[in-house]
Write a structure and sequence with these properties.
The chain is α+β, with helices and mostly antiparallel strands and 416 residues long. The chain has two domains: 15-169 and 229-314, BirA Bifunctional Protein, domain 2, CATH 3.30.930.10; 325-414, Anticodon-binding domain (Rossmann fold, 3-Layer(aba) Sandwich). The protein is 38% helix and 21% strand. The chain is built from 15 helices and 16 strands. Strand 3 and strand 4 form a beta hairpin. Helix 1 (15-34) crosses helix 11 (308-314) and helix 5 (138-153) packs parallel to helix 9 (230-246). The longest helix is centred in the first third of the chain and has 20 residues, at 15-34. The structure holds adenosine-5'-triphosphate and magnesium ion. Adenosine-5'-triphosphate (ATP) binds next to strand 6, strand 10, strand 11 and helix 11.
């Protein structure tokens, strides 16, 4: 049995679970489509540079969590850890820069070598949206509003909280960085090893630390919002005003940063406390520098990605693959005749399953187990008279009918 196991953090999706994933994705596609975001799909693996450059060579995703491998042409490839870099690369490749703004949605598997736990996997799915080509902070409000509507449609808005922050432009961040390093240097002996390493490379990431003693120190760290230049302040002001106008509730969290290098200005997360430490269900922000990092022209962008597994843990299951009707013969010799009754039932949009083997009582037991509503029974007499025995398995009534009548009775009873 051991040989059949899957890789740690990489799971099979059995029908009941996959059905929930699909439900979440369908809801996301529908609302994104209404916001005029068009679906795009990019490759699951790319040249590793596509991720390394924008995500930052010091980011966890690139240093510790990557799935990098060489193919037979000795090209260094990477399984995608996130969607935004690929979407912006595709946008640039397709020459869409002349046609901005462009609004995209995507979903699919992402890969990160993380410590697997509930809501944290090595292969997981994200649904995301990207609004490319608008530096206007109204676009930030738009994507947050889209995220809010998505959670609303899933029935999860009341169990999530929106947190937002601004990381400002690069001038503001550089300015803030100095003061943050100065403050953190005083606590150098108390910081976790990870944070000490980040102090010189990417001190803003320390604000994101989950380590207890780090968190205490961070609590009193200088507030990035106090260090924003006027332009960055104005932009953030428009975002919060926009959310106010839309009646979208939020908390400003001065320590909310995104783990990747390409983020600037608005950062936001929808968080639930129903999933323990893995509470972030939808996260995003502005990435004006990303296009340039990929070698393209300066092109602003803003978007978010949501974790499908985490959302699926929160929504109720509506999985149902019960047949409307099962077909069964009194013996095996009727199996071919049963097949010929499939077509009219399928054409009538009914769900049909044939029970091929076993005694009559076994077949009825099976019909019960799979929650079939009706059974169509074929025997010598029925075939000879070109008639069917239709049994309503819910009420127990039985009647002789032809196939057209059977369709009508079933559809009427099931309200289909
Ligand atoms: P976290 O802080 O939980 O590690 P993150 O900041 O790494 O999240 P993003 O890169 O912003 O997450 O990804 C967006 C969303 O994708 C997350 O909010 C989460 O719902 C989901 N996600 C991220 N990593 C994983 C994972 N390893 N397994 C399952 N879902 C994930
Ligand atoms: Mg992470």
């Amino acid at each position: 049995m051991d040989k059949l196991r899957t890789v740690r953090g990489v799971n099979d999706l059995l029908p009941e679970v996959l059905d929930k994933h699909n439900q979440v994705i369908e809801t996301a596609l529908k609302i994104s489509n209404q916001y005029c975001y068009s679906q795009i799909e990019t490759p699951i693996f790319e040249f590793s540079e596509i991720f390394k450059k924008p995500l930052g060579i010091s980011s966890d995703i690139v240093t510790k969590e990557n799935y990098i491998f060489k193919d037979r042409s000795n090209d260094e490839l990477m399984l995608r850890p996130e969607g935004t870099s690929g979407v912006v690369r595709a946008f640039l490749n397709a020459g869409l820069i002349q046609d901005v703004p462009k609004r995209f949605s995507y979903y699919g598997p992402m890969f990160r070598y993380e410590r697997p736990q509930k809501g944290r996997l090595r292969q997981f799915k994200q649904f995301g949206v990207e609004c490319i080509g608008l530096s206007n902070p109204m676009a930030d409000v738009e994507v947050i509003s889209l995220g809010k509507d998505f959670l609303l449609k899933l029935g999860l808005l009341n169990s999530t909280k929106l947190k937002i922050n601004s990381l400002g432009d690069s001038e503001s961040r550089l300015n803030y960085r100095k003061f943050l390093i100065e403050y953190l240097n005083d606590y150098k002996t108390e910081l976790s090893n990870d944070s000490i390493n980040r102090l010189s490379q990417n001190p803003l990431r320390i604000l994101d630390s989950k380590n207890e003693s780090d968190r205490k120190i961070i609590f009193n760290a200088p507030n990035i919002l106090d260090y924003l230049n006027q332009e960055s302040k104005d932009k953030f002001q428009i975002v919060t005003e926009g959310l106010d106008v839309l009646g979208i509730k939020y908390d400003i969290d001065k320590n909310l940063v995104r783990g990747l290098d390409y983020y600037c200005h608005t950062a936001f997360e929808f968080i639930t406390d129903e999933l323990g430490a893995q509470g972030t269900v939808l996260a995003g922000g502005r990435y004006d520098g990303l296009s340039k990092m990929l070698g393209g022209p300066d092109t602003p962008g803003v978007g978010w990605a949501a974790g499908i597994e985490r959302l699926s843990l929160l929504v109720p299951s509506h999985f149902n693959n019960n047949p409307d009707v099962v077909l069964l013969g009194v013996s095996d010799e009727f199996n071919f005749s049963l097949l010929s009754f499939m077509e009219p039932l399928i054409n009538a949009d009914l769900k049909v399953e044939i029970l091929y083997t076993g005694s009559m009582s076994k077949k009825f037991k099976r019909a019960n187990k799979i929650n079939a509503s009706f059974a169509i029974i074929l025997g010598e007499e029925e075939v000879k008279m070109k008639i069917l025995k239709l049994k309503n398995l819910i009420t127990g009534t039985e009647e002789p009918v032809n196939i057209r009548e059977a369709v009508n009775v079933i559809k009427t009873f099931l309200n289909k």
